[in-house]
Amino acid sequence: MTDDPLSPRVPGVAIVPSTPSAPTAARQYRTLRADRTLRSGASFPSPNTDASLTTAFYEDPPFLNGHFGPRMGLRPIALDQWLPFAISTAERERKRALFATERARVYRSLTGADAALTDEHRAYGAVRDGAQTWIECIEDVAEPPLIRAALAIPDDLCVLRQAPGLHGSPGEYRLVAAALTSPSYWRLGDKLGQALSDIHRGIAGMPATLLGRMKELFHRLPDDRVLERRNWAVHGSQERFQPEPDRESATDDPTLPQERARNAFDWWIRSERQCLKRLAEGLVVFTIRVELHPLDAVVEYPDALRHLTTALARLAGDNLEEFGGRGKRDAISAALHRLSLADR
Description:
This protein is α+β, with helices and mostly antiparallel strands. It is 40% helix and 16% strand. The protein contains 14 helices and 7 strands. It has helices at 22-40, 51-59, 89-101, 103-106, 114-130, 145-150, 188-191, 196-201, 208-220, 247-250, 256-261, 302-314, 317-323, 326-342; strands at residues 75-77, 107-109, 156-162, 173-179, 226-235, 268-280, 283-294. A 7-stranded antiparallel sheet has the order 1-5-6-7-3-4-2. Helix 1 (22-40) packs across helix 14 (326-342) and helix 12 (302-314) packs antiparallel against helix 14 (326-342).
């Protein structure tokens, strides 16, 4: 009999031994849901999620057709769709606290030239124009322009400027400023001043051809165009500020499948909505909006569950390493299988 590649039971992926019967799994599922509610002090969704966003995410997930890994995946969007959401009070206060207590880790701008401040003002102006409904709330904040912009929207902002080229060739774009309060396993201090190719060179599975296309895109990006793409990963924490990998992503611990399958609600799908917009000749802003969605919610969307299961089964080589290793992949697959049993 041929295995269905979209089946919740993934061929070749370890499943927790002695999988419980559906009634037993259902009882465990309800117990885990109650336990998460008790520990978080609130019912589903978590404070870092929104139910309507989770529904929209699982109805059109970035892992559609089983995809994971580096790709261009950019599509043009209208300017009024670039920054469509107002920032919540809780998120603004979270950002404000990080700017106050972790300044060097969440805000950096290359100094020594007036151009740096001009670049920030241009980024702020673009955000003001794109999100004018709620920009007024931070007009009087005594902060650099990039921080003021970041406090007005749920997105983070990175500003890239083109460096002088050699022998008449166009120079590479470099990261010259950023307000980054929701990093996904990277440190701003490590990337500031680096060229695009250097920023992405350490990503497992990043082909050289893709880096070349990315550099070309920055040179050719029209002034009136906003480009959007989404990615996804699975994290063992719902914290937004994650410059360092959590334990599940830092190791390939063989005990993780059993340990984490019993705590399925500790897994979170983390997705970044990334947009590019030209601010001026040789200057581009890159915005990043992070969404966090409970892994267990996927069982309410059968198509998304099938696509996610397929994506996990296809992970291999560099993509499997970038995801977090075989132990993490098997743990999540086991958790999905148990949840699918419980939801029947």
